[in-house]
Amino acid sequence: MSLPKINPTKTEAWKALEKHFQETKMLQMQDVFSKDPGRADRFKIEWQDFYLDYSKNKITDETLSLLINLAEEVKLKEAINQQFSGKKINETENREVLHTALRDFENTKPEVKATLQKMERFSEEIINGSHKGFTGKVITDVVNIGIGGSHLGPEMVAEALQFYRNHLKIHFIANIDGDSVAETLKKLNPETTLFIVVSKSFTTQETIANASVVKKWFLKNASEADIEKHFVAVSANVEVAKEFGISEENIFPMKDWVGGRFSLWSSVGLSICCSIGFNNFEELLKGAFEMDKHFKNEDFNKNIPVVLALLSVWYNNFFNAESEAIVAYSQYLHKLVPYLQQAVMESNGKSVDRNGNKIDYQTGTIVWGNVGSNSQHAYFQLLHQGTKLIPTDFIGFSEPLHGNSYNHNILMANFFAQTQALWEGTHAEKVENPFKFFEGNKPTNSILIKKLTPKNLGSLIAIYEHKLFVQGIIWNIFSYDQWGVELGKTVAKGTLTAMEKNNPSLVKNPSTRKLLAQFLKKSQ
Ligand code: F6P
Fold it and tell me: Residue 377 catalytic?
C-alpha cells in the first residue's frame, strides 16, 4: 500500500477554500475578540503540559472546518496510519519511516531495546568514570563529530536540556571548516576525551574528513591500540565504520528506517545520553511517544500538529506567505530554529509531486527565527510594520528552571504582549503619525508549556515532526527523501579534484573557473 497521491488543488475542499479566501482575505480581525467573546476558548488546545492558543489567526470557524475537509480529502488519516504501521512511505528511497518506533514504549522492537540498553550501559560508564582513557584518567569531554541530522538534533537537545546536564563537557564538530575543528581541539586533552563519530551513511565528506583530522591529532599522543577507548561510532554502515578503525563493539547501530533529520531518538542521541544521563534521555523519548499517540488518535480539530500544519497551509497557499518564524522565549532553545530548518526545509523543499509531476502550487515554507526577547530587538520591526505576512509561533514556559521569577515574568510579559501587539496593532487608536501606526492583524500561535523538562521537549519536537509530515501529505510530496542535497555534493567533489590538481580548467562554468583560479593564486 502506498501513500495517497492526490493533487490538493483539485479537491473540493481546496476550491471551497479558494472561494472562502476571496470572501475573507480583507477581513481586519484585530477586534474580533470583542465581537466574539468565545473565540479564545474555541481556538485553543489543552494537552498534558501544553496549551496551544491559535485564536490570533486570520481564521473563522468555517476556515478551520474547510481546512479539515482538505485534510480528509487528501486522506491524511490513512497516511498517518501508513507511517506508524511501517509501510514504505519513503517511496523514492524504498524505505519505511519509523522514527516513531524508536520511542514506542508499548510495542518496542527488539533491536530498539538492544540499542537503548547498549547506550544506557555505555553512557553510564562514561558518566560514572568507570570507562577510563588510555592513561587511566576518567573522561571529561565528549565530542560529537557529525553534520546535518547527525549534529543538529543532538546539539539542540543538549543545549535545551543544559539544566539537566552532568559534569561532562559536550562539544560538536560539524562544519568542515578547519578553523572550527582547530578551535575545538584546542580545548581538549586526548587522554580525557571521547569522540563519537556519527554518520548514518559513514560516507559524508565533512564527517569523515573531520574524524580523520581528529584521529590524526589523537595519534600524535596515543597509539592505534588506544583508539578503542576514545572513539566510538554511530552508523547504519557498520562495515565502513570498521574500516575507519572503530571496533565492532564500539559501533552503535542505526536502522535505515530512521531518517537523518529524525534520528536524535536513535543511537545518534548518544551524546545527549552522556550529557544528561540515560533516564533523562528516556524521558525525552517518552514525551515524543505521548505526542505520537495524541497525533495518531486525536480528532483533527483537537490535534496540535494537524491544526498547526493546516494553519501553515492556509497562509502558505492562500495568503502566499513565504516564510514563518519561530520564536522561543527561552535561551535554552537557541538551537531550535537551526534544527527545525533542516527538519522542515529538507523535508518539504520539493517541487515534484508524488506522481512525479512538476508542482504548480507552493510547498515548503521557509522557517526562520531566534529566541525572545532578543528577537524583539532585531527583526520584530519587520514583523510589526513590514510589508510581508509572517505567521509566527511563540513558544514559552510557565515556570522558569532556576526559580528566578523576576526575570521570567518580564520575559513572558514580552511574549504575551508581542502576540497581542502583532494582532491588535494601534488600529483602534487615533494615531496621527503614520510612522507610528501599527496595522495589526498579524497572526501568531502561542505554545505555552508548563516547564522545560526532557519529556516536554520530546513532545515539542514531535509536534513539529508531525506538523511537517501533515503538510507534506497535503502538498502531495515525499517529505522523507532529500535528493536536493546530492547535486551540490557531486559538484563539490569535481571542484575539489580541480583544486588538488591545481587546474581550474577542469571546471566548466566560467564564473566558477575564474573564482577557482583566483583562490588557487591566493592560497599558494
Ligand atoms: O546532506 C544531507 C544529509 O544527507 C542529511 O539528510 C543528513 O542528516 C546529513 O546529510 C548527514 O548524513 P550522515 O548521517 O549519513 O553523515
Answer: yes
Q: How far apart are CA 4 and CA 434, in angstroms?
A: 50
All three cell numbers of 454 = 526532557
Cα–Cα distances in angstroms (integers) from residue 485 to residues 204, 207, 481, 482, 488, in the given order: 12, 16, 10, 6, 6
Read off the pLDDT of residues 248-302 as tens digits, 9 standing for 90 and up. Answer: 999 999 999 999 999 999 999 999 999 999 999 999 999 999 999 999 999 999 9
pTM over 0.95, yes/no: yes
Nearest to 365 by CA among 330, 315, 405: 315
pLDDT the model gives residue 439: 94
Contact 460, 447 (CB under 8 A): yes
- CA dist., res. 444 & res. 395, Å (int): 10
Q: 117 pLDDT exceeds 80?
A: yes
ipTM of the complex as predicted: 0.98
Ligand 1 pocket mutation, candidates 204, 235, 340, 478, criterion most atoms within 8 A of CB: 204
Q: Are strands 444-451 and 50-53 parallel, antiparallel or unpaired?
A: antiparallel
In three-state secondary structure terms, 367 is strand
Residue given cell 484585530 in the structure block: 30
Signed CA dihedral, 102, 105, 106, 112: sign only: positive
**Who contacts 171 (Cβ-Cβ below 8 Å, separation ≥6)?**
141, 142, 143, 144, 184, 187, 188
Beta-bridge partner residues of 195: 143, 231
Nearest CA to ligand 1 atom 6: 260
